[in-house]
Amino acid sequence: MAAGTAVGAWVLVLSLWGAVVGAQNITARIGEPLVLKCKGAPKKPPQRLEWKLNTGRTEAWKVLSPQGGGPWDSVARVLPNGSLFLPAVGIQDEGIFRCQAMNRNGKETKSNYRVRVYQIPGKPEIVDSASELTAGVPNKVVEESRRSRKRPCEQEVGTCVSEGSYPAGTLSWHLDGKPLVPNEKGVSVKEQTRRHPETGLFTLQSELMVTPARGGDPRPTFSCSFSPGLPRH
Q: Which run of H or E residues covers position 141?
C-alpha cells in the first residue's frame, strides 16, 4: 500500500444486532446456532405442540413435531422442552417460524418469529492506491483513462474492497479521519456490489477519485470503513 493511504478502518455497529430469543424479530449470525422458544409449552413430554416454518428451504409451510426424525433434523429439530433448535442458521433459514402449544391446563398459546440473518465481512482493504496527489498533475491512472469517465484533474486514490457481508452493507471513505461525501468538493465514488452465486454473501467495491486543491497536502491519509446493512424485518 502506498504511503499516505491508511488501511481500511473496520467500523461495525453490533449494537443494532443480536440473536435475542423471545422477541418477535430475531436476528442471528450465519453459521451460529439459534434456539426459538415455544411459549407456554410444557417443559417436558408429554407435549401437545407443533412448529410451522415458512423459509427459503420450504415451498410452503413445513410442520415439525417433537417426534422429529428424518433429514430435517440436521436443519431444525424440536428439543425436549419444546423449543426449536437450528444448529447453524443460513440465508435459507430466513422466514417465519410459528409454534402452537397446549399447556397442562388446556390453554392454547402461540409464538411467532420472523428470522433474519447477517454476516460480518472481512476487514476492508484499499487496493491499487495512488502514491501521491498533486493539484493539476494527473497521476498515471488518470493519464491512461483521460479519454474515459474521469475529468483531467481528477485523480484516483484507490479501491476499497470488502468481502463476505450479508446483507450487503455500505463502504464509506474518510480523509484524515473525516468522512468524504460523494459528489461534493471534487469527490466522486464509483461503487459495485456483487453476490456470490453459491454462498449468497456480498462483495463490495468502492473506487474513490478526488480533485486535489492547490496547496493541499500531496500525501493525505485516506481510509475506508464498512457499515452493516440492517436486516429486512
A: helix 140-145
DSSP annotation of 119 reads: B
What range defines the domain where residue 101 resides?
31-118
**Last residue of one domain, picked from the residues 99, 118, 137:** 118
The answer to whether residue 1 sits within a structural domain is no
Q: Are 203 and 163 in contact (CB under 8 A)?
A: yes
Peptide bond into 46 cis (omega under 30): yes
Q: Are 157 and 210 in contact (CB under 8 A)?
A: yes
- Which grid cell sits at 42? 410444557
Q: Could you give the 3-state DSSP secondary structure of residue 149?
A: coil
**Residue 156 amino acid letter:** E
Amino acid at 12: L
| Number of domains forming the structure of the chain | 2
Percent of the chain at pLDDT > 70 equals 76
Give per-residue pLDDT as tens, 5-57: 444 444 443 333 344 444 489 999 999 999 999 988 888 877 889 999 999 99
> Which of 89, 118, 147 represents a domain boundary (last residue)?
118
Sign of the dihedral defined by the CA atoms of residues 93, 26, 202, 128, in that order: negative
Q: Which amino acid is at 109?
A: T
- Residue 71 included in any domain: yes
Same structural domain for residues 134 and 217? yes
DSSP 38-106: -TT--SSSS-EEEEEEEETT-SSPEEE-TT--SGGGGT-EE-TTS-EEESS--GGG-EEEEEEEE-TTS
Q: How far is CA 182 from CA 44, 188, 206, in A?
A: 58, 5, 11
